[in-house]
Amino acid sequence: MSNQFYVTTPIYYVNAEPHIGHAYTTIVADVMNRFHILHGVKTFFLTGTDEHGDKIAAAAEKEGETPKAYVDRISELFRSLWPKMNISNDYFIRTTDPQHMETVQLILRQVKENGDIYFSDYEGLYCVGCERFYTERELVDGKCPDHLTEPKIIREANYFFRMSKYQEWLIDHIHRHPDFIRPERYKNEVLSFLREPLEDLCISRPKSRLDWGITLPFDEKYVTYVWFDALINYVSALGYPEGELFREFWPCAQHITAKDILKPHGIYWPCMLKSAGIAPYQHLNVHGYWNVDAGKMSKTIGNVVRPLELADVYGLDAFRYFLLRDMVFGLDSEFSEEALVGRINADLANDLGNLVSRSLTMVQKYFKGELPQPSTLENEDDDLRIHSLELIDRYEAFMKALSFHKALMAIWEVIGRLNKYIDTTAPWVLATSDRDRLSTVIFHIFETLKIISTLLWPFMPESAEKIQVQLGLAKKGREIPLEDLRHWGKEKPVRAITKAPALFPRIEAGVEEWTASSEKSKTEEKLKVKPDKHLPPVPFSEFQKLDLRIGTINKAEVIPGSKKLIKLSVDIGEERTVVAGLVGHYTEAELTGKQVVLVANLEPIKLMGVESHGMVLASEDETGVHLLFPDAETVPGSKVK
Ligand code: MSP
């Protein structure tokens, strides 16, 4: 293992809120990062957001916001999610960062100086969803295979990157570095693309059509194609060309993406690097897709799985464990809350949770929390030690091969073995019959738990550290290097061994909740509307923090330039300015004089330049948006309880 490790996730588009797919890739990167930390390797972990291009400009417009205000808002949703998922990223890059934009321009200049950019007229089939031109051959029944929409014919003069020049080099590089793209199936997919002549890549968009992008350094009438801009984040974040981080970490770069963006990462990016005179990355690690209801997640269908909601209901580590245990890296997986609950109850509450709990109870009960020393060893002790130490090697091999589910299965084999060891040695019998033997058994249980908790740390950092605190260890998590674990008995507890409440309580209600909501969605399906997932319960005290008031709208005016937003002056005993997305549902005249329910103590937010001090409540379904109001004229400012 080299002394440095650099791992990246894709930078996510800010046209959608984070969902389980984004969480999976980022948790995989986190697990890999922490695995290297356990080896004492110096690591750098990058994630961020991709903020330019058609798609983003269109999403901002739809929300009635300027692109800048819009990307700031959604990017923040991603940035603030990661600490809540215990993601250990070192840096969060945004493609609107000035330093990134400068690096893109620098690389464009380098590539142009190498003679790899030319200007040409072009007519092609363009898919707005993919933000790229398609060849006839790539279309399925004349439609984009991803978006199932017919591409538009666009004719315009543009700048092109001479990607075709690097085709032979790339084929050769892949053959000489068989794990450049892995798993194998994705390498083969790239090689099969490369069997056909590679076309040059259109890397500009005229500002007359799109101006939300990075201006080309050699023609200010154009912006850079969003993929040419986005891929460069992997080097701009390291301070390319002069940055110390670039020198240190680029040679060991590993990208993680799903299969949807194999082509830009497996073909465009290596060719861009080659042309700019930068060494290729080390590995591209490609995983499959999480599907829901046997298909893609979609906002329209309403089956988007939100990671925070799941982590809130079931616990973050349980969620992380499930994602890594249930997906074979490289293949697709079907997400279901039922499977998640099944894993929590079987693997976490039963196997691991019970093991930790009963082991620690015994150390407390029989030795007052102090670890005893072993005496004469028997075969079953040797057997447990050998398997526990072997686990470290097996785990390492699986982790290096990106077989995360197998690494976890190997840990669970030892968890099973340890549970069996406890059952057969029966310490509760030894407690009255053989104190020496009891000491040996408890010592072996402790050592095995130490190994298990350390190997689990990359996957479930919080739970692993909790176990290590209960084990009385001075070091925890990243502080226990894997190498130290190989010395059986080396790391001793420095404090009393204690027992805390159950690590993973069984989920009973979750199943009911799931069943109830799935029943409900079956009914809703008939109406062709699927509800968003229900939110987890909140205590009444939380609800009481909301200040709900009846207000009377004194004035309503559409905000100039916005397609959605109306500025309301609402009387709630005092005059409030509130912005609401009601255009198309109510006219200004209909709103004036109406009573509404207002959330009066929301933090102010600026929308299209207007500061909104509250939010009016409304329902939304296929028939449109409907305001809520009292069923009799009410004194403005009255509390809603
Ligand atoms: N902005 C580009 C990436 C530029 S990288 C230089 C982009 N963004 S994205 O928001 O669409 O993210 C795509 C990535 O999100 C996938 O490659 C994968 O990492 C993750 N996933 C999105 N949906 C997913 C699933 N349903 N399942 C698994 N991962 C998925 O493409």
Question: In summary, what is this structure?
Answer:
This protein has 641 residues and is of the alpha/beta class. It contains 22 helices and 24 strands. Helices cover 43% and strands 19% of the residues.
SSE diagram, text form:
Blueprint: E1 4-13, H1 20-38, E2 42-50, H2 54-62, H3 67-84, E3 91-94, H4 98-113, E4 117-127, E5 132-134, E6 152-161, H5 167-176, E7 181-182, H6 184-193, E8 201-202, E9 204-206, E10 215-216, E11 219-224, H7 226-231, H8 233-236, H9 244-249, E12 253-258, H10 262-276, E13 283-287, E14 290-292, H11 307-314, H12 316-326, E15 333-335, H13 337-367, H14 379-400, H15 404-425, H16 427-433, H17 435-456, H18 461-470, H19 482-485, H20 509-526, H21 540-543, E16 548-558, E17 566-571, E18 575-580, H22 588-591, E19 595-599, E20 605-607, E21 610-612, E22 615-616, E23 618-621, E24 624-627
Parallel strand pairs: 1-2, 1-12, 2-3, 7-13, 12-13, 14-15
Antiparallel strand pairs: 4-5, 4-6, 6-8, 9-11, 10-11, 16-17, 16-19, 17-18, 19-22, 20-21, 23-24
Bound molecules: 5'-O-[(L-methionyl)-sulphamoyl]adenosine.
Radius of gyration over all CA atoms, rounded: 29 Å
Low-confidence stretches: 509-533
Strand content: 15-25%
- The overall strand count is 24
Provide the spatial order of strands within the biggest beta sheet.
3-2-1-12-13-7
Q: If you had to describe this structure to a student in words, what would you say it looks like?
A:
The protein is α/β, with parallel strands linked by helices and 641 residues long. A 6-stranded parallel beta sheet has the order 3-2-1-12-13-7, with helices on both faces. A hairpin with a 4-residue loop joins strand 4 and strand 5. Helix 13 packs parallel to helix 15 (404-425). Residues 509-533 have low confidence and may be disordered. Bound molecules: 5'-O-[(L-methionyl)-sulphamoyl]adenosine (MSP).
